Amino acid sequence: MTKNRSFLIFTSITLLLLIFTSCRSAKYLEDDQALVTDIDLNGIPNELKEQSSLYISNEIRPNSALNLTIYNVFNTHNGKYKTDNIRQVGEAPHILDSSLVELSSSQIQSFLRTKGYFNASVNTQIDINQKKARLDFNANLGNPYLLDKIDYEFKDTSIQRIYINEVLPTTKIKIGEKYDAAKLLEERERLYMAIKDKGYYDYVRQYMRVGVDTNVRGDRVDLTIQVLNPENDKHRIYKINNISLLIRPTSEEMNREVKVYHDSSLHIDFMDETGHFRLRPIARYMYLRGGQTYSLSNENLSYDRLYEMNGFRSVKINFEKIDSSLLNVKYELIPRSLMANQVEGEYTFSSGMSGFNIGNTFSHRNVFGGAELLEVKLRYGVLFDPRLEGNLSQKIFNNDFQVGVNLVIPRLLLPFQIRGIGKYGLPRTTFSSSLQLFNQDNTYSNRYLINTLNYSWWQSSTLQHSYTPVVLEYRVGKFNETFKQNLRSEGYELYVESNDREYFGLGSQYAITWNAPKLLKLEDFSYLRSSLDLSGNLLGLVSQAFNFRRNEDNQRILFKVPYLQYIKGEVDYRWYKHLEGNRQFVLRFNGGLAVPYGNNSRLLIFEKSFFAGGMNGIRAWQARTLGPGNYNRKSIEDENLRLSLRNLDQLGEVKLETNLEYRFRLLNNFLGAKMNGATFVDMGNIWRLREDRFNPNGQFEINKFFSQIAIGTGFGLRFDMDYFIMRLDAGLKVKDPQFEGNNQWVIQKLFNTKDFKREYYNSNRPDRYNFIQYNFGVGLPF
């Protein structure tokens, strides 16, 4: 029996035992108790069922089978539940309580009336059988009440004008539609924001009142919307007078040399009790300024941007009334710890090899006095291959050392100013430099240095830009001489050329992202991310103008090293459909094209190529083990060469992927987290642009398109911890393009794998065929 089948059988038996054990929990109850096992809502429209269920008391909702089983293991004795020394694990049984049933029924009835069903009544039916209770909440709705007339009463004509101009054009309260109290609350909130943005600092939501009259005619309701004045006064507009900024030290920080001065150009009084900060970088995001009319939007915007600077753990904006029309504004900030250090480690397992990664990140959050972030990252990883001979040090398959430095400045560092650039999000300028030193056992080494300058900013609340005008890179890739000769003798000259070389790269990148803030929301929307990467155009023009020398491969060289020329584009489009409750359907298309030209027109380098498989792609395949096209690694006749080229030979210049995923809630409480499930189908592949000897049948051909498409399916679990999501996906291969004809449908071999796997191993050793690929990650796959 294979390991995968053993795991599946063990998991299935475990789940069945848990369900069986939880169903037997009623035996632990007293004779006058009953365990709530099922709840139904009847007579309620589907669009209101999910919201109505929220009004049922948690103490009488059916238990999570797993959590109840865990509770039973630790809190039962001699066939009864313990009454003392109770351990706080799992979930205690939800026992029928008639008072809570009655309360829940009343709350559901009240909710339905807020939705226009003023004559709604809810009664409950309780069925008890063998200490198990089933609850039915039966609603009799009656006809919904429709809006017949709306009257408005404003004590202040200026407030009335704001309502007419700012709120009424997009109101959701319309005559002829069903009464909905939630729309009235939304109307009150929109009016509140509109009035506060016009300078009415003292205005509160309670000034707007709504009268509801259902005693008019039939199933009709009249509304009277009133906006009152303050008692014995009128609504007043306030302007900003003086602005001050105080930066206080944390409780554990000693006071430094205090900075106190008045900036006459900004008209701000500044006091820094830490001695670490400068005024101007912070004042850029203080949107309440002297001489302006008070605005709640500007107040909220100041909070958002000052927190986004990531240098302050507390932001407070206090107001002081000078008279009936003037406000002094006092900003008070408490910085986060100036420096921090974080150590991370992980165990890795891949294709029978294991290893570890360890990293250290040092952070300084205020390098130049404007909440600039400096990060220095170190990372070392090693992978051991037990099939290699010798001691532990001789079994190292590869090791990887990386060091990087990032400097993030919370503004666009430009010789000119762009007004309003921070309205929708904090703009950032990032200087980045990193070095990688990689070695693979007796095979390959790589030295890679890259330096970038990046600008990112928000054009609107949903549209983000990222522009990297400078990408300067230098790479030295070297094969072991013996391994290189073996490659050449086997006819893999193109592969040698693509990896065993030095190059310069000087280019730029641009990316645009739409609707990223909605990715974790349950609603209907589309998401788009598109990127373009260009390299070598400027060097190409300069090299022609100054007639750069050429090497033996006829490539123009700079400092004796050739430079790159290529164009690479990628698009990631997703369509999210909310199916009520916690159910969601996602359709994703991910495509890319990379074209080498000019100075390196023959082949795209390793780092710029696409790969398929992995936790965020076609999940039934391990990363870098799918494609290109119909390529099968058995075409590499030398077994040792096949081993050495693992994860290096399956690359391409074209990428097409489609993913379909259905997400749903499994358990509302699983060990303190929400457990969601997902079923998915992934399709796609990568391709070479043109035929090459190293990847036979790997080129893109339209007449072979379907035969070159891989298909995988599977099931996943997502554990939502509120702050982050842990994910476990199991992908099953359905159609594998490395085979021919009907043999591509490998799903037919799933229950007769022994001979199939043995034949595959004999032809592709040391590669083994796995029908199921497990992927563990943090965050959603897309």
Write the layout of secondary structure elements.
Elements: H1 3-23, E1 35-42, H2 46-53, H3 65-75, E2 76-77, E3 80-81, H4 98-114, E4 121-129, E5 132-140, E6 146-154, H5 157-167, H6 181-196, E7 208-213, E8 220-227, E9 239-247, E10 259-263, E11 268-272, H7 279-283, H8 296-308, E12 312-321, E13 326-335, E14 339-350, E15 353-364, E16 373-384, E17 396-409, E18 428-440, E19 444-458, E20 463-479, H9 481-489, H10 493-499, E21 502-514, E22 525-535, H11 537-546, E23 557-558, E24 561-562, E25 566-578, E26 584-596, H12 639-644, E27 654-670, E28 673-687, E29 710-720, E30 725-735, H13 753-764, E31 772-778
Parallel strand pairs: 1-5, 6-8, 9-11, 9-13
Antiparallel strand pairs: 2-3, 4-5, 7-8, 10-11, 12-13, 14-15, 15-16, 16-17, 17-18, 18-19, 19-20, 20-21, 21-22, 22-25, 23-24, 25-26, 26-27, 27-28, 28-29, 29-30, 30-31
Helix pairs in contact: 1-3, 5-6
In short:
With 782 residues, this protein is of the alpha+beta class. It is 19% helix and 39% strand. It has a 16-stranded antiparallel beta sheet. It has a 5-stranded mixed beta sheet with strand order 10-11-9-13-12, with helices on one face. It has a 3-stranded mixed beta sheet with strand order 1-5-4, covered by helices on one side.
